[in-house]
Amino acid sequence: MNFEGTYVAMVTPFTDDGNIDEEGFRSNINYLIDKGVTGLLGAGTSGESATLTHEEHRKVVEILIDEVGGRVETVAGCGSNSTHEAIELTKSAEELGADAALVITPYYNKPQQHALIKHYQAISDATDIPIIAYNVPSRTGVNMSVETIVELAKIDGVDAVKEASGSVNKVSKLYKALTKEGLEEDFNILSGEDGLTLPIMALGGTGVISASANVDPKRMVLMVDSILNDDYTRAQELHYEMIDVIDALFIESNPVPAKTAMNIMGLPAGPLRAPLTDMKDENVEILKNALKEADLI
């Protein structure tokens, strides 16, 4: 499967009593589709997947697929620090009809590089759904090497990587290595760092899985589309229009600022689940100022 464009890592809105806000989630889905996104991700990190029960996880993916109704691509978060559990989550997403599965590297247990290859091979062997590997060492404690990602690209069914190591140089080396193996046409690099999407795409990336697009989807879509159309002048303008908001949305742990911003903007988000909690007052002011400057409130 070819992954190209703007995918939104959606927040999971909750009601005041802590349940999934199904009506609000459906509203957000339609809001983002109206803004021109390519695809939507449910039950990922931005969706507080770590504190969703398995039943809630399945419900989020089910609602997403139902409400989208084929209008855009649907991606289900399916990662776990257990290979067996990751397989079960990926099978569930496939059964529900998701277009793809986003599978984070196992966290906390810090598997070796060759173990990562076996992990993704096992998931691919057990399912037929396209897989996006997710590399985010700041959260998992393990950083997939360029060599490992190239080996993943050779696995039938592993079609992309969401790269969030924060290294533009690594993306450059990865694209060069993929090209050397003749894999660059069949394996996509997606930005997992909103503020680095422009340089990542300039180096061969084909899109972004964005948390900030919950808050400012229009500009992110326009920037990514501008890059895909080789209009780097316009893309640079849009990058600088967004960058203060992006910075403010990561001033505390994602998705705390994103949900705070959405609540300020009147979009369904609701409360956070413990252990995440409300932002510090001084950071809320920084966030509000960035939203005002970007004409989002």
Q: What does the model show?
A:
- There is one protein chain.
- The protein is of the alpha/beta class and 297 residues long.
- The protein has one domain: Aldolase class I (TIM Barrel, Alpha-Beta Barrel).
- 47% of the residues lie in helices and 13% in strands.
- It is built from twelve helices and eight strands.
- An eight-stranded parallel beta barrel has the order 1-2-3-4-5-6-7-8, surrounded by six helices.
- β3, α3 and β4 form a beta-alpha-beta unit.
- α9 runs antiparallel to α10 and α10 runs antiparallel to α12.
- The chain is globular.
- The mean pLDDT is 98.
SSE diagram, text form:
Elements: E1 5-9, H1 22-34, E2 39-42, H2 54-68, E3 73-77, H3 83-96, E4 100-104, H4 113-126, E5 131-135, H5 137-140, H6 146-153, E6 158-163, H7 168-180, E7 188-191, H8 197-202, E8 207-210, H9 217-228, H10 232-249, H11 256-265, H12 281-293
Parallel strand pairs: 1-2, 1-8, 2-3, 3-4, 4-5, 5-6, 6-7, 7-8
First-residue to last-residue Cα separation: 37 Å
Class inferred from helices and paired strands: alpha/beta
Write out the CATH superfamily name: Aldolase class I
User: Within the CATH hierarchy, at the fold level, what is the topology?
Assistant: TIM Barrel
Structural shape: globular
CATH C-level class is: Alpha Beta
| Number of spatially distinct domains | 1
What is the subunit arrangement here? Answer: single chain
The helix-strand sequence is EHEHEHEHEHHEHEHEHHHH
Strand order of the largest sheet: 1-2-3-4-5-6-7-8
Q: Which percent range fits the helix content?
A: 40-55%
Largest sheet: 8 strands, parallel, barrel
Percent of sequence in beta strands: 5-15%
**Corresponding CATH architecture:** Alpha-Beta Barrel
Unreliable stretches (pLDDT < 50, length at least 5) are none
CA-atom Rg in angstroms: 18 Å
Annotation, overall tally of beta strands: 8
| Mean pLDDT score | 98
